[in-house]
Amino acid sequence: MQSDTAAPRPYYPVGILRQDGRFHVLAGAFFLAGERIMELTGEASDRPSRYSVQVGWQEHVETWVPLEDDTSLDSCQVRYMNHSCRPNTRIVDRQVVALRDIGVREELTFDYNTTEWEMAESFPCECGHCGGQRIAGFKILSAEGRQSRANQLPEYLRSRMGQ
Question: What's the pTM value of the predicted model, to 2 decimals?
Answer without folding.
Answer: 0.83
